[in-house]
Amino acid sequence: MNLAERLKYEREQQKMSQILVSKKLEIPRKLLSEWEQGKSVPNLEMLQRISEFYGLTIKDLFKSPPPKTIPAKIRNFFIKLDIGGSFNLISFSLWHPYHYFCASCFIKNELQYL
After folding, report:
1. CATH number of 3-61
2. 67 exposed, middle or buried (CB, 10 Å; 0-12, 13-18, 19+)?
3. Cα 95 from Cα 104, distance rounded (Å)
4. Residues 6+ apart with CB under 8 A from 90
5. Contact (CB, 8 A) for 18 and 32
6. Are 105 and 111 in contact (CB under 8 A)?
7. pLDDT tens across 52-101, in order?
8. Do 1 and 63 touch, CB atoms closer than 8 A?
9. For the chain, which residues make up each domain, given as ranges?
10. Closest CA to 34 of 26, 16, 22, 45
C-alpha cells in the first residue's frame, strides 16, 4: 500500500469525507484529493499533521495497515480445512481485508458440505 492509498484508507476508516478532513487539516479539498490519487505528496510538516490527525506515526503512513483479526468461528473452520489440506487455498483470501467478504461467502457455501 502506498502513501496515497493509505491516506484514502485512513479517511474511509474514520468514515469522513474529503471535505471534512480538508477542513480539519486546513487545506483545500482538491489538494487532499491529489494526495489520495498520488498526483502529489504532502510535505514533511503536513505529513506530521496528517499522522497526528489519524493517531499514527509518519512511518505508519507508508506501511500497510495490520490485517483484520479473523473471528474464532472462521479460524476454527480453517483448522478443519487444514486437516483436509485445503487451508492454504483460501487462507490468503481471508488475510486481506478487501477479500474478506468473498472468502466469507465461500466459507458459507462450503459449510453445507461439511
Report:
1. 1.10.260.40
2. exposed
3. 12
4. 78, 81, 103, 106, 107
5. yes
6. no
7. 999 999 999 998 887 766 666 665 555 554 444 444 444 444 444 444 44
8. yes
9. 3-61, 72-111
10. 22
Cβ partners under 8 Å of residue 109, min gap 6: none
Q: Which long-range contacts (CB under 8 A, 24 or more apart) does 88-95 make?
A: 94/70, 95/67
The confidence score (pLDDT) of residue 65 equals 81
**CA–CA separation, 14 and 25 (whole Å):** 14
Q: Are 18 and 29 in contact, with CB atoms under 8 Å apart?
A: yes
Query: 39-48: long-range contacts (C-beta < 8 A, 24 or more apart)?
Result: 41/3
Length of the chain: 114
